Amino acid sequence: MTILIYFLTIVFGIVCFVIMKKKRYKVMPLICLIMFICFIGCGIVSILSLTLPYGEILVYPLGAIIFGLVFILVGVNDLYSLLRCREKVDGVYCGYNTYYGGNGISTQSPIFEYTYNGTYYREQTAQNISHKRLNRSMTQGNVYSIYIDPKHPAVFILAKKIKIGTIVSIILGLFIFTYGIDLLYPIFAYVIEPIVYTLLVNCLITLYHI
């Protein structure tokens, strides 16, 4: 688990660097915020696990808190996309990008070409869709209605409805986040607090002798 956190810190660091370089934070602020939280959170956990006595025991609870928060923000981002993407336009379906997760699970992000206010766009949607649904309901080269954000036309969604996955993501995130807090409390009470108390006492003794 500790090695995984180190690896994720590096991966999210690279992603954040690309976001800053391409200035994608102006177009997709919430998604970029999620990436930055992942990088900062994993970085903090990595530093604590390396520097604090018994720091390795903090990896699981802090990791659960961070990933729980990420699941919550992913669900919130879906809801936010429904609010901001409100203008309907026609776009040409051009295929999809595939993203692989754990246990061989993959999600697909459809790519569309469309024109808005005289500007041409070729972007992928902020929503992930299953491969089965894409093959069943969409054909490459056909025209479909999509909903774009008028302020940031590069951001769009396919349907104006709340997905079950969004609700599941928020509920699962709350559960994982709460579980992490529950794991962290006894560690703080029985391990971290005595260490902090000992350090403070030693500092006071040192100052007194000086």
Overview of the structural elements:
The protein is α+β, with helices and mostly antiparallel strands and 210 residues long. Helix 1 (2-22) runs antiparallel to helix 2 (29-51) and helix 2 packs antiparallel against helix 3. A five-stranded antiparallel β-sheet has the order 3-2-1-4-5, covered by helices on one side. The mean pLDDT is 80. The chain has helices spanning 2-22, 29-51, 59-84, 131-137, 164-209; strands at residues 87-100, 106-116, 119-124, 143-148, 156-157. The chain is built from five helices and five strands, in the order H-H-H-E-E-E-H-E-E-H.
Major sheet strand order? 3-2-1-4-5
What portion of residues belong to β-strands?
15-25%
What class would the helix/strand composition place it in? alpha+beta
Biggest sheet overview: 5 strands, antiparallel
Whole-number radius of gyration?
Answer: 22 Å
Extract low-pLDDT stretches: none
Order of helices and strands: HHHEEEHEEH
Count, helices: 5
Instruction: Kindly state the percentage of residues in helix.
Output: 55-70%
Q: What is the average per-residue confidence, as pLDDT, rounded to a whole number?
A: 80
Distance between the termini: 43 Å
3D shape:
elongated
Number of strands: 5
